[in-house]
Amino acid sequence: MKLYGSPTSPYVRKARVLIKEKNIPCEFVIEDPWPEGSPIADKNPIGKIPVLEVGPGSFLFESIFVTHYLDHLDGKPLQPRDAAGYWQSQWWQALGNGIIDAVIARVLETRRPLEKQWPDKMAREEKRVHRAFDVAERAYRGGRFLVGSAFTMGDLVMGVALQYVDFRYPHHWRASHHKLARWHEGVAARKSFEETLPPGFTKPA
């Protein structure tokens, strides 16, 4: 099995962290989807990463689908077994994915020529991130993990999302979100997170 993508992509990193957490034998192959003629397009007609090769000529794509597949490979998904816990974990995943989407949109806007950048667009994405942090701070109940007593996909996705904020939209969110900061410190210290940090990532002081 092979995972194709960029080491700086948060969508790819979700899969990489999960692979580490579950000790799944999977080769990571760095491929850039952006250049014309990128081989990613041959594996995913949408031209996005991550792409997971599960067999000769057989590929899965879109990060939610890829992580869902990886999470269920061993029959022991990182999800609470009770209905309430399951949907709470899904809620945290949706929030984390939304943060990632907003930061990605902001990053892409900053990479446009200065005269073509849309400041209102960047401000709108930043507000989305800030609102998500405020909601997360209120929703978090203060345990070691976001839901129940075990690490779930909610922790994984939110953990990756917050580190992507630190990587691409660094600001002092910890100063006003103390509970979330304490939770994230614990998750970010996991071996799976440490071993998949994007190149150039600087840990917050």
Summary keywords:
205 residues; four-stranded mixed β-sheet; 2 domains; single chain; Glutathione S-transferase Yfyf (Class Pi), Chain A, domain 2; 8% strand; alpha+beta; 52% helix; Glutaredoxin
CATH architecture of the largest domain: Up-down Bundle
Structure annotation, total helices: 8
Name the helix and strand elements from N-terminus to C-terminus, one letter apiece.
EHEHEEHHHHHH
CATH class of the largest domain, please?
A: Mainly Alpha
Largest sheet, described in full? 4 strands, mixed
Strand line-up across the major sheet: 2-1-3-4
How many domains is the backbone divided into?
Answer: 2
Shape descriptor: globular
CATH topology of the largest domain: Glutathione S-transferase Yfyf (Class Pi), Chain A, domain 2
Report helical residue fraction.
40-55%
